[in-house]
Amino acid sequence: MFEWYYLSGILILCGINLMVVMGLSLLTGFTGLFSFGHAGFMAIGAYVSGALATMLHVPFIPAILCGGLAAMLVSFFIGALTLNLKGDYFCIATLGFGEAMRLIFNNVQFLGGARGMTGIPMKSSIEVVYVFVVIGVIFMWFLIKSRHGRNMIAIREEELASQAIGINVFKYKMESLAISALYAGIGGALWAFYLGYINPAIFMLTKSTELTIMVIIGGLGSITGSIVGTFFLTFIPEIFREFAQWRMVIYGAAVIFVMAVRPQGLLGGIEFSPTGIIRWFKTMPERRAAKAARQAAKAKAETAQGGES
Amino acid sequence: MSQFLQQLINGLSLGSIYALMAVGYSLVYSILNFSNFAHGSVIMLGAYFGFYAMTLLPLPFMAALVVAAIGCGIVAVIVERIAYRPLRRRNAPGLYFIIAAMGGSIFLENLVIATIGPTFKTYPQIFASTAFKIGDVSINKLDLIMFVIAAVSLLLLVFILEKTKIGLAIRASSYSSKGATLMGVNVDKVVFVIFLLGGVLAGLAGMMFGMRFTVYPTIGIITNKSFIAAVFGGLGSLPGAVIGSVLLGMIETFAAGYVASNWRDFIAFALLIIVLVIKPSGLMGKITEDKA
Description:
The structure holds two protein chains of two kinds.
Chain A: H1 4-30, H2 38-55, H3 60-82, H4 87-107, H5 126-145, H6 147-157, H7 159-164, H8 169-195, H9 205-218, H10 223-239, H11 246-261, H12 274-282, H13 284-308
Helix pairs in contact in A: 1-5, 1-8, 1-9, 1-10, 2-3, 2-4, 2-8, 3-8, 5-6, 6-8, 9-10
Chain B: H1 2-32, H2 39-55, H3 61-89, H4 94-115, E1 132-134, E2 137-139, H5 141-163, H6 165-175, H7 177-182, H8 187-212, H9 220-233, H10 238-259, H11 264-278
Antiparallel strand pairs in B: 1-2
Helix pairs in contact in B: 1-5, 1-8, 1-9, 1-10, 2-3, 2-4, 2-8, 2-9, 3-4, 3-8, 5-6, 5-8, 6-8, 9-10, 9-11, 10-11
């Protein structure tokens, strides 16, 4: 159905999206902070790494890491300003940050302005992208299972209560934001090295929205959910490519539909893990037996009722 | 001095259009407590409705304005029925509403691109660009009409909210929708009316915005600035939305006039963050407290 060249392109795009979505998943799904400005962090990663590679001839991998670190540095500043905002106002502030970032890159002529930056070596191969993704998933997995991850989940569930039991809410929110900015910066840098050309228009608000939608459709509070959501929503527009603009109409309708029917997302709060899958298969006979017993009991109750009336 | 006055007038007319749009965001926020991002797309549709009413049907300006207003009112109500009502029935958290709103906005925007196309459209020029002159200050005729229509419709809105029965119900629901329900207010009806009102104002604003600039499917990105204005004044507060809009209009025109026009949008967004940092619920917003 697909040529390998085309398919690998989509897979690279999936990997890059996944990198950013994982970071966003930590912030949104596990810490409960919604961001509409992650395209801004991607833009920082992309521009910093791109500038390092084209102007200072920094090698590929260090340039990408620097891109990620630059996004993280900016996130400390942004976090210090906005993390005390409540609910909707935080997400509006991040929206403002994302757009402000794009407009800065749009106006700084040194970085190409609205024309964009060209001549970035196209080095993001599928192997490199997936090495980053695998490292990212493993790190995220252990982070979630650690004390840090549990504290973040506590903040998501009940901010006031977690403060009362002595969790430094601001510190963990900041940690979550910084790590998610690091992921977004690396994702943005990988994207720049994949496209070979970046301009501010690709980091519009719609990109941030797309990322948040991937997290939500995948399911809040689930890393595997984010992976499924990312692959699902990156492939869908590609499969419907022949329908041109109509595919985005379908996309919008699908988002409304999922929200109306299954707002917790495809895998909200559910994780797939090797041990979990093994356990699922092992307990299958038991669950079957339990189900059969339940049905038998129900049938018995029904006949008993029928007898009475 | 004359340049200052000139910018002041330009800012006022731009701000009045922002106010029409921002009031729609604020009305919805005051009742349902979420930011209705599909509002920008409804404004965009208003610009298209007005454009086709004036070019295809050829209707006169005022009739086209009515067509745009009614069309947008209907669209806003339909969006509420399809996207938000299932969520309201389940008492879903505000964030699901925002995502559904973004889905709605993607849907409407791309529906227009798929059916009409992404090209720019320009309204026929019906108001001669000759301006009134008062001393050195010139006033564009369209700007004046924009300002008058915005002011009249905002006054009408205030009248509806303050003097009618449904207005009382809306105000009651914005204090406490649970309490209002207990007093016999039909919240479904209130939600219907606020989306209708927001949509009608969006239609007016969209058409005039389209006449002032151009019409294209992603116009919603620019109208997002009216959302900033609503945040500026404090979400959920109508006077806040109007004051925030006028301030934003002024700041933008002054920034374009005295600083540099390509930094205009940046200044708007930077200001948004600064206002939120200094006064986290906007100039006159509802104070949301932690529920312990």
